[in-house]
Automatic annotation (TrEMBL):
Superkingdom, natural source: Bacteria
Family under the similarity heading: Belongs to the HupF/HypC family.
One example of a Gene Ontology biological process annotation: protein maturation
One Pfam family here: HupF_HypC
InterPro entries: Hydgase_assmbl_chp_CS, Hydrogenase_HupF/HypC
GO molecular function: carbon dioxide binding; iron ion binding
UniProt protein name: Hydrogenase assembly protein HupF
Amino acid sequence: MCLAIPARITAVHSTSDTATVALDGVSKEISLALVEDAKVGDYVLVHVGYALNTISEEEAARTLAMIAEMGALASTDDTP
């Protein structure tokens, strides 16, 4: 199974087709090779260092909330 995480673009580096994204206080350089017209403030789905597509802020918030909920459920699991 693959997991793509929503992240907000904080800077676009047009000369290298890359961007800086931020998620929960962490910044990371990613490739924009698969996404056209991404700009600062857009949310993108990131998988293994590549933006796969843009998504709305609302969809990003829903997805991040579900991921947080899964983490909360996993932390209450008593199995080793």
